[in-house]
Fold:
Amino acid sequence: MDSFETPKKQNEFRNTLVLLSLLAGLVGGVIGQAFVTPWFQENILRREPFEQERAQIVFDEQSAIISAVEKVNPAVVSIVITKDLPKLDEFFSPFGFYYSEPSGDLERQEIGAGSGFIISADGLIVTNKHVVSDPDAAYTVITQSGDKYSARVTANDPFNDIAVVKIEAANLPVVSLGDSDRLKLGQRVVAIGNALGEFQNTVTSGIVSGIGRDITASGGAESENLFEVIQTDAAINPGNSGGPLADLEGNVIGVNSAVSLEGQLIGFAIPINQVKDVIEDVKQYGRVRRAFLGVRYITVDADIAAEENLAVDYGALIVAGDTASEPGVVPGSPADKAGLRSGDIILEVDGQKVTVENSLSQIMRGHSPGDTVPLRFRRADEVRDVSVTLGEAE
Structure:
């Protein structure tokens, strides 16, 4: 006989299921309140504020870059270099090709371009020395607003790749100078300049990639040692030379000067704190004043010490050149007056040890003409101390 549950039994079973469902719901609610809700709040609900915060950071950085560019850009100029060169006449040969020959006449031709930035309302402009190094060339400054001015070179820094040019103008916008000693690795910066000599006031951004680099910058037949420069990955192209590197507060913290052709986005700028003395000298004296000792020397290291059989492996060994026009000590110079002579090794100047890392020329950069400094040198087996009043480099 088949068995069936009576309606009463079915009702009891249904009531049991309802009770179990209520208990399961209650337990699930407790577990959810105790474990799931905190996880949800931690991982889901907080995600939106985080995304908002990240978006705010991006927005703030973009705003800072825009603000910095708006502050600096009006004072950034392009420098166009022209020169009178032989005019070439073109001819078509019987063999089916064109060739050129000098006509004997001269014509003004553009031979290069660079950048600069205005430091005084009456037209003083900082740029690189290599941008304005040709004494036979003419220089034209083009402002961001498109105005053109003839420029003359006012001063060159004998120890750095810095020059100051002057245009005749008034009420020009000027840059604000920052403090390059306060730079930090990873700090955001912007570079502005006449990229490729074609795209005026081009803006690129990047970070400070390195601080205190020593490099040898070369262009054509010229080369120059640059010390303690700023490395940046902000794109610096030919034509950017002399333009400003600025922080996000719109302060110029460097002068764009060189770029590595072997790598990618490896550019270098001269720290603005190295340029401030140049600016003050030009404003006050109309020229760049640099301290002058008056010696011809080689920096001693372990190899030089072994080769020359020297008693010390540091210092500046005073040496004469191959001709009488290259004396080890310049006659009448501060070094001459202090009694120095060829063969002496300058060990210290003003308490600073002369080494490969801290060369005599670098020490001189930190002094001005007229400074009187103690100098220690070695002659044979004797160490001597003298006082030297520094002159002014020509």
